[in-house]
Amino acid sequence: MKTGLYIHIPFCRQKCLYCAFYSVAARDGEYADAYAGALLREAEYFEERFFAQRKAEIATLYIGGGTPSLLPVPFYAGLLEKLQRIFDLSNLEEVTFEANPEHLSLAYLRELYRQTPVRRLSIGVQSFSDADLKLLNRRHSAQQALDAVENACRAGFENLSVDLIYGIHPAGERSTWQDNLETLKSLQLPHFSAYALTVEPHTMLELKLAAGKMAIAGEEQVEKEYFFLQEFAAGNGYEAYEISNYAQNGAYGLHNCNYWRDVPYIGLGAAAHSYLGDERHWNPASVRDYIQDPVSGKQGERLQERDRYHEYVMTALRTVWGVRQEKIAAFSEPLRQEFHQRAEKEIKCGNLQHKGDAYIVSPAKRLLTDGIAASFF
Ligand code: SF4
After folding, report:
1. Alpha carbons 206 and 270: distance in angstroms, whole number
2. Cα separation of 271 and 65, whole Å?
3. How far does the centroid of ligand 1 lie from the alpha carbon of residue 341, in Å?
4. pLDDT at residue 172 above 90?
């Protein structure tokens, strides 16, 4: 069976204002060898436990973080060569690498293209405004973001995506969102992701807001920028195929699509999650513990039918393909009934609509998707 492989690189130079992901500050290459060793030991654990008879056939590989581009290319070339002995990497349909603009020199990108199978880049741009980048505590400048895209094209990468953030400025302040989308348009990228700035617990953003040191967009402003984004996407040939993801001509991020399609995946690294068979595993968020022993700290649970139902409805409603009747039909009668009763209510109040044999969130209500999905549970 095809499987996704995610490799987590939990190192960052500094913490961004809004970030709640697990990462540790690391200087160039610090921990790299020890971390690579631990990743391989964890991969062997998955091989012995789940793939003793036959190597796992990896369909998509995603190297995310943290900041993968903090580590030198030979780190990845060496790691993937060794992983090849453990997993079947001969039929990769997509290999994505997350990167920050300040690391994407032409030399780095050329090396990455030549020495690894990475062909898709997801670049953490967030904004093309220097003032926004400073506010968000990012390390790069707007010019570095533009250079990174140009360098990637020159190095041969065609499958490029950038991440952008909206809802940064409160109503009354000048919003940079329109300008950011204009710049995005000029870059003619096949894919981008756009996220509303959200206040996560234990972030610098939360502290600053609580101390009254800054303000961000309120609900109405976020909604305004979100609808502007929808118009922009529709007017420029981008399909909003998931609530935060936009693609031209079907250039979907396959690795993420497979998460939403219930394809199993192996997650390697500190704080990484895996989903295999009916089991979910996750690693503690500690680089030190992970390096010492990447296996014994693992936690896991066996998924019950209701867990799988929740997961499916939650993720499928976020996509343009919606919740499919045939998938719901595979659940037991009580869950099927529960789903149909709730879905009819949501249709009556205009939150959901039919699309072929699927239920999707009505386009005007997409910003409320998580709340609508939560009403099913
Ligand atoms: S670079 Fe990414 S993972 Fe690291 S702190 Fe910033 S947002 Fe978080």
Report:
1. 25
2. 10
3. 41
4. no
Contacts of 369 (CB under 8 A, 6+ apart): 243, 317, 318, 361
Specify the pLDDT at position 28. 67
Quick one: pLDDT band at residue 27, thresholds 50, 70, 90?
confident
Q: Which residues of 169-181 are buried (b: 16+ CB within 10 A; e: fewer)?
A: beeeeebbbeebb
Distance between Cα 73 and ligand 1 center (Å): 20
Q: Quick one: CA torsion of 285, 193, 363, 234, rounded to 10 degrees?
A: 180
Distance of CA 155 to the CA centre of its chain: 24
In short, whether 15's Cβ falls inside 6 Å of ligand 1 is yes
Ligand 1 in reach of 67 Cβ (< 6 A): yes
Cα 34 → chain centroid: 26
Residues 6+ apart with CB under 8 A from 318: 242, 243, 260, 369, 370, 373
Residue 377 has pLDDT above 80, yes or no: yes
pLDDT at residue 338 above 90? yes
CATH superfamily of 2-259: tm_1862 like domain (3.80.30.20)
Q: What is the crossing angle of helices 32-50 and 73-86, to 10°?
A: 20
Tokens 């093309």 sit on residue? 128
The CB of 23 under 6 Å from ligand 1? The reply is: yes
Q: What is the overall mean pLDDT for the chain?
A: 95
- Give the integer Cα–Cα distance in Å for 6 and 272: 8
CB distance 239 to 233 below 8 Å:
yes
Residue 268 phi, psi dihedral angles, 5° rounding: -105, 140
Rounded Cα gap, residues 151 and 348, in angstroms: 50
pTM, rounded to two decimals: 0.95
Domain ranges in the chain with CATH number 3.80.30.20: 2-259
Which of helix, strand or coil describes residue 78? Answer: helix
